[in-house]
Write a structure and sequence with these properties.
By secondary structure, the protein is mostly helical. It is 55% helix and 0% strand. The radius of gyration is 15 Å and the shape is extended.
Length: 73
């Protein structure tokens, strides 16, 4: 079974590396939680008979729909 992808080097909007240990730790924990929940939902869908391709496409669509609440309009 695949494992969670390797974490990237996080960068801010100017391209500078986010180097705060606590921030990186929080990002790792958040991404791990998202990965585990997505994996469980994916497996449940497969067990219920849903198409793998449809599940993957929807999970991708779900992530694309996440909004940035801090975006200046």
């Amino acid at each position: 079974m695949k494992s969670m992808p390797k974490m990237p080097v996080w960068r801010d909007d100017e391209g500078n590396v986010v180097s705060c240990t606590e921030k990186i730790k929080v990002m790792q924990q958040n991404m791990q939680e998202i990965y585990e929940l997505a994996q469980e939902a994916f497996e449940d869908g497969l067990l219920m008979g849903c198409q793998e391709t449809q599940l993957r496409n929807y999970l991708t669509e779900l992530m694309a729909a996440v909004k940035n609440p801090y975006l200046q309009n």
